[in-house]
Amino acid sequence: MATIRQDDLIDSIADALQFISYYHPTDYIRNLAKAYEMEQSPAARDAMAQILINSRMCAEGHRPMCQDTGIVNVFLRVGMDVRWDAKMSLDDMVNEGVRRAYLNPDNKLRASVLADPAGSRKNTKDNTPAVIHVSLVPGDTLEVEVAAKGGGSENKSKFVMLNPSDSIVDWVMKTVPTMGAGWCPPGILGLGIGGTAEKAMLMAKESLMQPIDMPELIARGPQSRVEELRIELYEKVNALGIGAQGLGGLTTVLDVKILDYPTHAASLPVAMIPNCAATRHVHFVLDGSGPAKLEPPSLDDWPKLTYDTSKGRRVQIDQVTKADVATWKPGEVLLLNGKLLTGRDAAHKRMVDLLAKGETLPVDFTNRFIYYVGPVDPVRDEVVGPAGPTTATRMDKFTRTMLEKTGLLGMVGKGERGPVAIDAIRDNKAVYLMAVGGAAYLVSKAIKGARTLAFADLGMEAIYEFDVVDMPVTVAVDSQGTSVHQTGPKEWQAKIGKIPVVAG
After folding, report:
1. Domain 309-489 CATH assignment equals 3.20.130.10
2. In a 3-state reduction of DSSP, which class is residue 110?
């Protein structure tokens, strides 16, 4: 009969969260590297290269692969014969592990969890509490799965109550294109089918903890209806041509995972949750012999790539004019140099509220560019921690006001822009540039200086000024309103040729 000590669980949770912040699961790296080798879309290939380079840098430097270090999800399978040497509750032990991991001074992780979600939305400062699921199972060990789920992919979660005769495939194929690129493909789709509404969502999330095995599954052939469905969805979703970062290409998903459960005769609950390019999860077992021992992966699992800056056009970002912007072409790679302002959700809301009151903003945005980012705190000699882009569509409702009331010239973010933002960009002859989600540490190396300009109380959501050197971005919406997130997938869907291109 195993006795699990309080400190062993706390230390194991803390170690696991540090571990997954800078080590991708090797099955993801191996499969992404294969997809990179096969990719024919230059834009998608460039995005995958950045993700792979970033991942290796994080594995070597022990820094977060993404600035969004996630909300912690923990699945605990507690053996019914386990004894506890503990004074804290199970939830409290897990949350203490989270607290220690996120406040670790050698690799401090970004605190993204806000209390009072419908009210003050105040940051808890240590990323607690975790979302914890507990089940009792036979045995005398404690089995733990720990994941850190980024907001960009979590926000794209979908759920539907289908009629029993409805097609799951049809719903998925109709729904995936509506998710845009804010979930940072190429990633994994997790589906939960059956049970009840909440059971389906839980199964979808839990399915994402499974290793990638789609190549092996296709090689041996399906042996159940669920495996047939996985293969069918994998092939059809990739045939949509969405591609890495939504730029158009051969690989949108590396795998499709499905868990199912018996359901009511009148029901067909279906949940779908994507996992992003910053896939982070690990499994360990405690048997009473001490904390978990997590073995670092071999760097041989990573391809040896370097980023070639010679293929981008260098621009001085704080000296750009509307005339310059008008020459930038959709899909063109730029290398940003100079002073780049930052601001995301909370800063935008505060600025728009100030403008509505007729008040002056604390920062002059005339002919400047704003980067949608909430960076990780720096450690040691860093000027800023990992600083990848956040999902740009969340700023769409602020875009017209910012462009017309502040003199802002352009924006840098992750994923596509919606119709409201694209119209505002076209009307103001502005531009939207896309940085690669999942390459936060690589991006941070282009930032040579950082200072807070305004709204310091917002923490990582404050307005900063970054000094950047050769920061790689892609022209995603040009001054005429052409979006590569619309043209790219259509082009590659047609090239793949498995699904007819829908006109209009």
Report:
1. yes
2. coil
